Amino acid sequence: MALPVARRSDLRQKLRPFLLMLAPVASIVLHIKVPLFSDYFSFLDPPLLVTVYFALLHRDAVQALFIGCAIGLAQDALSSNPIGQFGIVKTLVGYIAASASQHLNVENMVARMGFAFVFYLFHQALYAALGASLLGQQVSLNPAEAILFAIMNAAVAAPLFQLLDRL
Amino acid sequence: MEFTLSRYRNVTVLVLVLAAQLFLLAYQIKSRQDVRSIRVWAVTGVMPLTRLLDFLHDNTVGLIKGYSGLMEVKDKNKDLQAEVAKLKMENNFLRTELATADRAKVLALFPSRLPSKSIAAHVTGRGSDSSKVVFVDRGSNDGVSKNLPVVTPDGVVGRITGVYPDYSQVVLITDINFAAGVISQKHRVHGTLKGQGNSVCTVDYIRNEEKVEVGEWLFTSGDDRIFPKGLPLGQVKLARAGKMFFQEVQLVPSGLQLGLEEVLILLEGVHQPIPDHAPPSASAKLLPPPPAEGSDGPDSARVIRGGVATTDADQVLDRYRRIGAAQGHAYGSGGGTPNFAIDPPPPRPPAAPPAPETPPQ
Amino acid sequence: MPDVATLPADQERDKEHEVRKVLGEDPKAAANRIAVFRYICVAVFLYLLAGFWALQIRDPDYYAELAEKNYIRSQPLPAPRGRILDRHGRIIVDNHSSFSLYLSRDNLKEDHLDAMCSALDLDCADLQERLRRYDRTRAKYEAINIKSDLTSAELSFIEAHGGQDNFPEMEVIQTFRRIYPRGGALAHVIGYTGEISEGELDSADFVRYKRGDIIGKTGIERQYNDVLMGVDGQRRVLVNNRNKILKVIDHKGAAAGRDVRLTLDLDLQAVAELAMTDRKGAVVALDPRTGEILAMVSRPTYDPNRFVGRIRAKDWSEIRDNLDYPMMNRAIQAQFAPGSTFKPIIAMAALEEGIIDDRTTATCTGGAMFYDRFFKCNLRSGHGYVGLNRALVHSCNIFFHNIGMKISIDKVAEYAELAGLGKRTGIDLPAESEGTVPSRRWKMRTQRQRWFSGETVSVVIGQGALTVTPLQLAHSIGGLIRAGEWHKPHLMLDPPPSLDPPRKANWSPENTSKVVNGMFGVVNQGGTARGAAIAGIEFCGKTGTAQLASNDLIRSRKLGLQLSDNAWFVGFAPRVNPEIVVVALYEHGEHGDRAAPIVRDVVKAYFDSKHRRPQTLIAAAGAAR
Prior knowledge:
The complex is a heterotrimer of chains A (167), B (361) and C (625). With 361 residues, chain B is α+β, with helices and mostly antiparallel strands. Chain B has helices at residues 2-7, 9-31, 36-64, 71-99, 103-109, 300-308, 312-327, and strands at residues 117-126, 133-136, 149-152, 155-163, 168-172, 179-184, 190-194, 201-204, 217-220, 232-240, 248-253, 262-268. Chain C folds into two domains: 72-262, Penicillin-binding protein 2a (Domain 2) (Alpha-Beta Complex), CATH 3.90.1310; 266-303 and 330-620, Beta-lactamase, CATH 3.40.710. Classes of the chains: A mainly alpha (167), B alpha+beta (361), C alpha+beta (625). Chains B and C meet through helix 2, strand 6, strand 7 and helix 7 of B and helix 1, helix 2, strand 3, helix 6 and helix 11 of C.
């Protein structure tokens, strides 16, 4: 899967500032609003998908970690927990996704879904681990449910990434 | 050095960003203080955008539902519904007061016992973590402050835990950090409701000797100094004797059953009597009609509660009291010699509380 | 848009490429190695960061435990006190599950105290003072109990406000509360419990206890505190910054206190309690054969249940400022002139000393002059020609005044002290009074005056400086009717107390039966308590009417009831080998015959329950156990 270094720049997308601004905000709005319309959508994690998308798109670890950090902090601000928990997790997600994308083919739809799947699980695990170790939260992880939600997020990621590509 | 830093630039930045966030977390935990400014920015920045989603939702899902021509009416109707709910609560209070016999007393009390002053609010979003938290579009600019109760005419929704200029954070009745004083409708048993992080709440500190029935309505007791007395909380789903003196009681909260759109924030709570019958079914969106009497209902709860703590000494005393009564003997006074060897008549059972109506299901 | 080739990441990579070239490595393999190295760096960094976090943020004091112990919270596991049972095993005092509010001081915010105090009805100044005291003497990580026996309303308040955003320093601990009989029954015997005071902490009696302990304050609760009080357990838990328990470090279970069985019989006690309703005074019933106290009542009373936890200042001042002294155990602390109930002792002394015999008589005309002072008899028309028996049956003062002319005060004092008056009986209750037995030496010591013979004339009819407690009277008469054999009064049955052998005076049985027969006549031969006779039981007794002030004073000041005479009655049954002695003091009861029905009811209850017990009481006691 690793690509020759010479080909990287061809795959890099152009930066689109409006998308960079809009997508994270929209993802957060969706995340806090859509479950109110219907509880069935509460499994969706648009902020995570957007973080992964930007990381895969730009492949610049620094940029990706900042995007992840900003989205995470905004999520923290809208939660009842201390600010920083989501921020740290999404910073790491952004960094690792961007780093990994430098060595892997991320143009393929299946690969992108794979990324979404893996990073959903990574995100959940790290969030729980941080909560338990730093904040002493009582963590109850349901692996079967987490995998199911990861699959569903991966399924949503495919059309979402397509849509973002076209914007 | 410069070479090393530029060579490991990515890792360095990552380390700095993570460290900054860890310090931020550490500061909050150590000082037990919130970084309020970040929250204010986020809430003020993000929440107005949820309106857009409301608009989109109403124009898409709403259209599908066939209400496309009634958008304006629907909006108006929403506002009116909130207003009606508020007025109904006030109306219930007035009807309670007017039903009492002493009108003069009511008039004298009226200024000091105004019904709960409330403000309608729209739920703009839920918390971004797994806790049961929502945001509403009323904040300190509207007179909202921390710990105010949030209700719907169906029941209690939660309480305000965070206040921003135009928005507030509400911890829902189902959150693990939520607790409120409750009183049961039939036997006036007091307890404490606690959220469990799922759709059912538990009620603690109800002794095994006390009577709570499945299906019975529980109301706020006012004991917590947050919720005014008399707001419906929900119906008992499970009640059974537990270990270590206390019952295991579960309740299905009524305030969240129809979803969350419009809520009322009680700016000034007023305690109200506990109705003697169940609140009307949730779909009717009506507060229960006020009880005819202005009191707190039957005294049986106090009898039960007071009767719990007795020892054999109390029972022996009671036995001799009954012997004396049966023989017309005044202890320590002249007259005939009593016979203490007889068995006294059994004690009269305490007066049963009036039979409540069956709650409409 | 910047040229993609000039992006920093690419520059870095180009540099890396050059380095690899110089080193002569395969660029692809080197890139992989560097990537691996980079992740290792991140992992090592995160590991170090986690360590830093654990040390500095989460558990700094775990490692500096002795310094602060912020994160090791010690949760008390209160031990239930032993129960208090009657002689048949019926429960007098029990425990009930309750909740107490503890305040953890390590995360206490001073500005929260006002709100907490007002919501939980606590005295804020008092609480702050207690906090300061605790801060000086107890480790900061120890939570302190600031309110016991929380009501349902208080629990709701604490739970609703105990979250991180309100008052996280509040902590609810399940504990045990004492349940005492309602309405103040048995309050004086049993006493009550409360938090150890500063004064008690300094006293030798409580050297084993520490601040915050709940100890017996009065009565049996205090006397047998060491037996009743269990040993509290403790659970040490590791908590995080949000007060969540992470793990239990150690758990030392609580050891419950031992149950005690008293000599009291709830049947007699209940009757005595009911007989004293709306009356002021005391009742004591004891078994003269053993000294076991069967019933003890004092009125007015107080409700010890109000002392459970911390009594409110208002309630305390209400009890303390009550001029009827409801906290006083009149059975062992009230010292009043015994009136004519003292006459049996004088009769015994006179018989034993040979001052009177069967032939001794006196003529009562309703009053007589003794030492230039006119003394009235209780019957204005006079009792006529009286010997010892009639003098006891009708309580003729003139007969006993005549004895007083012949007997010295020191002889009176000798017999009274022999009978147990003028000194503590040694009952196992705190703060017993001594009473007063006047003598020449006593008067010289206390008043620096010599004794006047005229005073003896008053003392022999139970007036003057002579004072006794109801228990002393019961104890003394109980020994007298056993021809001078006194068993120390006691309340403890199990664990068995170590008892001294009875005191003996070896009085003549003939003289004893002369006095006992006189007391039989008081109830059964038309004497002063003829209304108190019990069919089928040889119930004997002696009335006593003791003046609190002279009749002239009452008339002149029109003070009415509060200075009217105290009514006494001491009764026992059966006449031969008595099993029970009962004394009733009815303050301001005006005449001894009004105290007699109180004693009669208790004696009747004794015999009725004795006959009933084999069938039902044993079963009931078994069920209670």
